[in-house]
Amino acid sequence: MMLTDKTAVITGASRGIGKAIAVHMAELGAQVIINYNGSEEKAKEVQKEIIEAGGKAFIYQCDVSDFKQCESFVKEITAKFGRIDILVNNAGITKDGLLMSMSEEAFDKVVQVNLKGTFHMIRFVSRQMLKQKSGRIINMASVVGVSGNAGQANYAASKAGVIGLTKSAAKELAPRGITVNAIAPGYISTDMTGQLKEEVKEKIAAEIPLGILGEPMHVAYAAAFLASDEAAYITGQVLHVDGGMDM
Ligand code: NAP
């Protein structure tokens, strides 16, 4: 399975799962555009790591929650690279809290980044993919978007929204050879889950059938497969990468 000469845009690729996807897609031959919002230094480190390994990588700052910024981002990369073969909507945030005390700001911000950010990028990238009559879009959902989670109503709602968006986009774009799928990771060891106390992590791991928390590369392998030619007949699906949590 290779991604030779494909142009891949990965949002939120300065850290965690997005970084692993960028590194792995570059290993498979893609030139990758590493999007970040605030972590410029980390994005540069990812770029350096890829280039030192013989790959091609570019960095681009864009807040995906901003419609206009996404429009300019996509316009610039389309002008520079001529095509976009793969879009991974990975950027995401959490602002956890119990529903009855959750601020409106905490709800709106999470939906704005996770769900609207995904919409913004699909909105602009799909125009280019429609012209090409090809493309792969992969959206990062979450196991909690399927099963819900106490203390994460905003996050779970945003990720359930990503799943609905994925299926609708898959139906709209299928006639032009563009596939749209989602990945629903379980608990993956990144900064996002890093704040959890050790005993909480142990409790979570004990409830996962495979018995361990996932690593970013577990998700990267799934994303690379969905982006590959081998996944040409798969669209509108939610691939769980969760050690068996949701079954
Ligand atoms: P992470 O380590 O916290 O990294 C988040 C990434 O998103 C960073 O690169 C960050 O960039 C970027 N980002 C945040 N807001 C952004 C914005 N407005 N515009 C552009 N980029 C933005 O998170 P992660 O754990 O790797 O999670 C990646 C994705 O997987 C998210 O969608 C998350 O919801 C999903 N997920 C994670 C888990 C898990 O257990 N970790 C489970 C299920 C789903 P800057 O640092 O530059 O701001």
Explained architecture:
This protein has 247 residues and is an alpha/beta fold. The protein contains 9 helices and 7 strands, in the order E-H-E-H-E-H-E-H-E-H-H-E-H-H-H-E. It has helices spanning 16-27, 40-52, 67-81, 104-132, 143-147, 153-173, 191-194, 198-207, 216-227, and strands at residues 7-10, 31-36, 56-61, 86-89, 135-140, 178-185, 238-241. Helix 1 (16-27) links the parallel strand 1 and strand 2 (31-36). Helix 4 packs parallel to helix 6 (153-173). The protein is globular and about 45 Å long. The two termini are 28 Å apart. NADP nicotinamide-adenine-dinucleotide phosphate binds at residues 11-18, 35-39, 63-65, 90-93, 113, 117, 140, 142, 185, 187-188, 190-193.
- Percent of residues in β-strands: 15-25%
What separation lies between the terminal Cα atoms?
28 Å
Please work out how many helical segments DSSP would assign.
Answer: 9
Order of helices and strands: EHEHEHEHEHHEHHHE
How are the strands of the biggest sheet laid out side by side? 3-2-1-4-5-6-7
Runs with pLDDT <50, length 5+? none
Quick overview of this protein structure:
The protein is α/β, with parallel strands linked by helices. Helix content is 49%, strand content 15%.
Distinctive features:
binds NADP nicotinamide-adenine-dinucleotide phosphate; seven-stranded parallel sheet; 247 residues; 9 helices; single chain; alpha/beta; 49% helix
